[in-house]
Design brief:
4-stranded antiparallel beta sheet; Jelly Rolls; about 475 residues; 17 helices; alpha+beta; 9-stranded mixed beta sheet
């Protein structure tokens, strides 16, 4: 018989006891958005869980079972070092959060558990209730995948009727041959449905810091999220946010300001699925993200500028209220500089390029963890001033972050152009850097920049067969819609 659990494991964080046992609320989860008042969460009985999901699918859509029904969550999503419940940040019960009135809490992330304001929203946001509302209003919703939502500034790039999403799209996903990657995720700033939490549902202790900080639409925006288990949003950052989870369960990953997610951050574009399998296992303890899980009735506060990514562990409904204010990054000055601009300025004002290089060097000398923009700009300047040093600047960056393909792409595309211009030394340099990069690039099978680098390198070596294989793979990803 499957084990039945209605509580979290217990623990202490920042002197605050977390994970108190509590009654099980109505769930939006794998049982198919049931409107029942209380059901225990069944752990381990995957046959029963799949059966319940099949029953819901057959009643709600014509999606074929082999494409719609997902296997149990893989352990790399559901577990961390063998645990299924964890919290690396401060956690408070909703009825015992008075300490949060201190406004210094606005500078660090925390969780508020089992807020009745959020739990009261559940009956209006079951699957059946959402379907009725969608049919009555004709609402549409924007959907995407973990990488495309992050690339599209926090909103799904594709619009479709909400009824279609709930009845079929939510249970379909994107495949790479036989490998299931992730289901699509409804992530929408414009969705308007009665019953969704709003800024008035944010816990009073948060609103006590600044009553107008999360006022929609004046100072904040609302993002509505509906997604099945394994749907996700990749690494991104924005102004301070409060996310309220009405149904389901989520796993969060966080990095503080000044620390980019390894392999991602500026221009990264990993799917969260691939990041967790390719990058996460290689991280030393000091490089790992902070993590926590959210359940129904929980809210998370994330300060301005914290990189974060989230995966749904169950079918989920949530709302995020995001402040429009975002403090500029220390590297903001370097963000808009391109290689083309540097090359043009070098022709007429070489002194200005030298000054820009000096500024970039000064930033790098601080030893900041997130130096990618400044490093990129210094590389641009050195391609004109000292090409050999330009190569070493990029290699130093990729030694620090061996999975950051956009940084590798900067050097590879420059070398490819020099090879095309007939510079034999550029091919020797390409061989040297690929000796370091190729193992990780080959493992990164769904990154188009990685495939482009591999294609160009083997083409330069005269290995047309291998180059064509990488090119064909790149074309295939484009057709699948995996455009990162």
């Amino acid at each position: 018989m499957a084990a039945v659990h209605c509580h979290r494991s217990r623990g202490r964080q920042h002197g605050v006891e977390i994970g108190q046992p509590s009654a099980c609320p109505a769930r939006f989860g794998v049982a198919g958005f049931h409107e029942a008042a209380c059901e225990p969460r069944v752990v381990g009985d995957t046959t029963a869980r799949a059966s319940r999901r099949l029953q819901w699918i057959s009643a709600a859509s014509a999606v074929s079972a082999d494409r719609a029904v997902q296997t149990p969550l893989p352990e790399y999503l559901s577990h961390r070092h063998g645990d299924t419940s964890f919290c690396d940040i401060a956690s408070f019960q909703a009825d015992d959060a008075a300490a949060l009135k201190d406004p210094t809490w606005s500078l660090q992330p925390f969780v508020i558990r089992k807020d009745p304001r959020i739990l009261e929203r559940q009956p209006a946001l079951t699957r059946e209730a959402l379907l009725r509302a969608a049919e009555e209003t004709g609402a549409t919703v924007r959907v995407g995948y973990s990488w495309s939502i992050a690339q599209n500034r926090g909103e799904g790039p594709r619009e479709m009727p909400l009824t279609d999403y709930l009845q079929s799209e939510m249970d379909q996903g994107i495949y790479d041959d036989a490998e299931f990657l992730e289901p699509s995720y409804a992530f929408d700033m414009g969705l308007k449905l009665a019953g969704m939490p709003d800024s008035e549902d944010i816990h009073p202790v948060i609103r006590s810091w600044n009553e107008s900080a999360f006022s929609v639409p004046d100072t904040a925006v609302t993002v509505h999220m509906i997604g099945g288990a394994r749907s996700a949003v990749g690494w991104h950052t924005h102004g301070a946010t409060v996310q309220m989870t009405v149904h389901g369960r989520k796993r969060w990953f966080l990095y503080p300001p000044g620390h980019y997610p390894p392999g991602d951050g500026p221009g990264g574009g990993f799917s969260l699925t691939d990041w967790l399998q390719l990058v996460y296992p290689t991280l030393e303890p000091a490089e790992r993200p902070l993590e926590f899980t959210l359940e129904a009735g929980d809210s998370a506060y994330i300060p301005d500028g914290w990189y974060h990514a989230v995966v749904n562990l169950e079918d989920s409904v949530a709302v995020s209220i995001q402040s429009k204010e975002l403090a500029p990054e220390p590297q903001q000055f370097f963000k808009g500089v391109s290689l083309g601009v540097v090359s043009e300025v070098w022709q007429e004002q070489p002194g200005s390029v030298e000054e820009l290089a000096t500024a970039a060097r000064a930033f790098l000398s601080r030893g900041a963890q997130n130096d990618l923009h400044a490093r990129r700009v210094l590389f641009y300047c050195l391609t004109e001033m000292d090409p050999k040093e330009a190569v070493e600047v990029i290699l130093e960056g990729t030694r620090k972050d061996p999975f950051h393909v956009p940084t590798q792409f900067e050097l590879a595309s420059w070398l490819a152009s020099r090879i095309k211009a007939g510079e034999a030394a550029a091919l020797d340099t390409f061989r040297r850097v690929m000796h370091l990069w190729e193992p990780n690039l080959v493992a990164n099978t769904r990154n188009q920049k990685a495939l482009w680098i591999l294609n160009k390198f083997h083409r330069a070596l005269g290995d047309e067969e291998t180059a064509d294989r990488y090119f064909d793979r790149l074309v295939k990803l484009n057709k699948l819609g995996i455009d990162r």
